[in-house]
Sequence to fold (623 residues):
Amino acid sequence: MAFLQLHALSKRYGAVDAVVATDLAVEKGEFVSLLGPSGCGKTTTLQMIAGFVDVSGGQILLDGRDITHAKPASRGLGVVFQSYALFPHMSVRDNVAFGLKMRKVPTAEIASKVKTVLELVRLAPHADRYPRELSGGQRQRVALARALVIEPPVLLLDEPLSNLDANLREEMQFEIRRIQCAVGITTLMVTHDQAEALSISDRVVVMQAGRVTQIDAPYKLYEHPRTRFISDFVGKANLLPGDYDQLGTPQVRHESGDGELTLSLRPEKIQLVDAGTGRLQGKVLDSYFFGSQWLYRIHTSLGEITVVRSNDGSAPLGCGAAVGLDWQASLLRVLAADEVRA
Amino acid sequence: MSRGYLLSLPALVLFVGLLILPLGLTLVLSFNVFDYQVGVKADEWTFAHYLSLFSDAYFYEIFWRTFWISALVTLLCVVIGVPEAYILSRMGTPWRSIFLILILTPLLISVVVRAFGWSLLLGADGLVNQVIQFLGGRPVKLLYTPFAVIIALVHVMLPFMIIPVWTSLQKLDPSAEQAALSLGASQTTVMRRIVLPQVMPGVLSGTLIVFGLAASSFAIPGLLGGRRLKMVATVVYDQYLSELNWPMGATIAVVLLLVNLLIMLSWNRMVEGRYKKSLGV
Ligand SMILES: Nc1ncnc2c1ncn2[C@@H]1O[C@H](COP(=O)(O)OP(=O)(O)O)[C@@H](O)[C@H]1O
Ligand SMILES: [Mg+2]
Fold:
């Protein structure tokens, strides 16, 4: 049996269904992300697991124990909040020691544990500072240390990186993953940032309007999005009309207009070839440079198509250049219609 | 003169004209010689009023009474106001505004009117005594006792405690409380170790306002303390209007101001000193 299990977990706020019959099984030591647009019920799910929000229906099992209605204190989970929720009137050391003091751990042991965890998050030199004297990334690390020091069975992270600037966010992503691997702690992270979810999770749970719509490993999720919404939300996607050929394999319909199928084709799966060759002809509308890659928007008979080409040293294409587009037919993905509106 | 000074001129004129000037005149007056036949002698100077104030046990009694009543009122306002503000901050959307307005509306009614209201309630045949008699008890003397003054002062001062505490509660991150709970703290520990230390600046401002207003309050001790239970402000009033000894009244007023200032500044230093480092106030 999985370590953390949600069975048909639901939450209603008056007339609003915030979370609808969510099932999830997280294995011990696994890093799982809850990914979805804002307002889809991620925080509510996390707060039900942490015990801050009463459950309307369903069950939460931790290591076989039913904790659905247990008090937050008795669950003993480590929670990191979006706002960090540090205690502003306590030093870094006292913030981190708080959970241990509540557990009546002997003073000497508290000191050594706090020291160890502050070294783990690389904050040992700042132990005597107050939260307001720290940068955003450092506060984030204090919050992480405070949750980890009590050695919780599960670590819950609510949008831990959303208040950081882009560079720091990437650095902290690596940091969180490094710490999680070092400690081996079962982790559930909420995020609305698909890149974040893909890069550091073992598995990603996509939520939409209170429901789970796909659970898969990041690579599988990216390569095989189930629905139109997911293919668009997770990474960039070109949605093309298509149908099945005589052999039953999906193909792009060349005359424009809606085919019976919706196909997804990732921008980096398309090759730009000489005009006149390839499967489709087009003209470059505009181009964007991202350092490691170029992004082109290309006007074709099937509409606008986005192509990403890695910056391999070849000359960039100018606006208005005529190009051919080619791809491997096996990389086309058939999408299911969206069963829920996000 | 720079533009900034020019713009602050109206406020400056108001400040000087309505506060500094009368205060200065009061200070000058307190050194004027007073003669029961002639009245104030504006060009003769003396320390006599200060000497008589400091050598008269009657004034010590009045000042001491004013101090302990104000301190007790302040304490009661903390004990009642802080939990009240916390509960208020935890209320749902419609109720919170309704109760906040309920707490603030008494400020719109004149203190004199409220004091009369209390004297109707607490009088010899007031509502409270009627209830006591109805229940078979003997009537109790409530009016013109410290009890009446304290209960009415607490009633009047409570909003001045609730508002600053409420303001600092607004700045609290509710998830910090959740974090403490998830770390194993009980609800009372959260109150004591997380919430209270963070609202201390608000409590401090509240105590300063309440103590200052209570120590210089006039209408309530005047109407509910009566002839017997004098506080400093009512004694000043007597000196001015019954004795017509304006310089003596001014002397008491100046000393009250200085004592008040001294107490409030040392209290502020004491509390702020404890919380300055952690809260950065
Ligand atoms: N305390 C609450 N009262 C009423 N509705 C709420 C409350 N908290 C969340 N909701 C609603 O529940 C839905 C999910 O919210 P939330 O879990 O915070 O979303 P997310 O974290 O994915 O952005 C939203 O529609 C939100 O408006
Ligand atoms: Mg959220």
Q: What stands out?
A: The pocket of magnesium ion (ligand 2) is lined by residues A 42-43, 159 (CB under 6 Å). The mean pLDDT of chain B is 90.
